[in-house]
Amino acid sequence: MTPPEDPREARRADFLAAAGWGGVEAVPLAGDASARRYFRLQRADGARAVLMEAEAGEEVSRFLRVGRFLRDAGLSAPEVVASDAPNGLLLLEDFGDALVARIAEAEPEREAGLYAVAAEALAALHRHAPPADWPRATPAMLSRAIAPLFEHYAPETPPETRAATEEALAQALEGLDAPTAVPILRDFHAENLIWLPERAGSARAGLLDYQDAMAGHVAYDLASLLRDARRDVSPAAAEAAITAFLRESGRNRATLTAAMALLGVQRNLRILGVFARLAAHGKPRYLALMPRVWRHLEADLAHPAAAPVARALGEALPAPDPARLDRLRRRCPTP
Q1: Hey, where are the domains in the chain?
Q2: Which residue of 75, 90, 113, 245 has the fewest CB atoms within a 10 Å radius of its CB?
Q3: Cα separation, 335 vs 331, whole angstroms
Q4: Cβ contact 244:120 at 8 Å
Q5: Which residues cross the membrane (predicted)?
Q6: HSE value, Cβ hemisphere, 13 Å, CA-based, for 209
Q7: How far does CA 295 lie from the centroid of its chain?
């Protein structure tokens, strides 16, 4: 008996045929922490595109809206070749394989320049007000967002420590100037940036994975870029990025770096929990990234701006030492 056709494959084939890409082989590309899937297509005439499959509905609609906003701002988000939001299908411009992370690893002498352009792209983005209907990364929302830390990474944390940490974080974030003034992309790092040397200025930074954009603080995405869970950013590259951002934005260095430290604490507390959850759901590779996340967290907790959060946490939060990682690994459904 012939097995029934996968409905996803049938929808994909119909979508590609209607877009003029029927019969083209779809080669899987590396995915990310989400359930989205990506495929590269290349026609006989040499034209290339990327197919994105996502959860049907709002996620795709948001990707389309945010991408349009970014392109209107003069930044490089992939053009949309065809879309079927109800079925979670997008055919996108192919930016190629020149990930900033790969280039920086292969040619470390170029890292500082690449990171400077990425920071320039952020400064250019911040010249545009976030749309009124974008979610707001308020201090209350950001403090609640560290919940995965206590649910998945350190569930043994006393309830009073959890409450005190969230309260201290919210109060510290309230002290930041204009906490929701600019667009933030939230997952802004070297593996979500494609180098496009044929373009000019900040448009040389090709942007990916921006559907979760919000209105937030100017330092948020810079903290995401420089406190990267996936790779070590050299001091020279970090300084090049900060210098470029300050030059393009006119911000104050001390104020910016204090905000980066505090937002770095928020991000990395959350990331520890998210990575533990991903591991428990069959993605144990994220456990190997935890020691780097911890180093970022320790460095930022030492900044005076994060002192209230450090006091609230005290000694309650365990490091991702071999015993902790082994415990988390044992929860993984796959080896």
Answers
A1: 7-93, 100-330
A2: 113
A3: 10
A4: yes
A5: none
A6: 18
A7: 19
Long-range CB contacts (within 8 A, 24+) of 127-135: 127/73, 128/69, 128/73, 128/183, 129/182, 129/183, 130/180, 130/182, 130/183, 130/213, 130/214, 130/215, 131/65, 131/69, 134/183, 134/213, 134/214, 134/215, 135/214, 135/215
DSSP string, 33-45: SSS-EEEEEE-TT
Q: Are 292 and 128 in contact (CB under 8 A)?
A: no
Its CATH architecture, for the domain 100-330, is Alpha-Beta Complex (3.90)
Return the CATH fold of 7-93. Phosphorylase Kinase; domain 1 (3.30.200)
| Summary mean pLDDT of the chain | 93
Q: Which amino acid is at 236?
A: A
Mean pLDDT of 161-190: 95
Q: How far apart are the first and last CA of the chain?
A: 34
> Cα 31 vs. chain centroid, distance in angstroms?
13
Q: What is the pLDDT of residues 53-84, one digit of tens each?
A: 887 666 788 999 999 999 999 999 999 999 99
Report pLDDT digits (tens) over 44-56.
898 999 999 887 6
Rounded to 10 degrees, the C-alpha dihedral 297/301/306/309 comes to: 90
Confidence of residue 4 (pLDDT cuts 50, 70, 90): very low
The structure tokens listed for 73 are: 């701002």
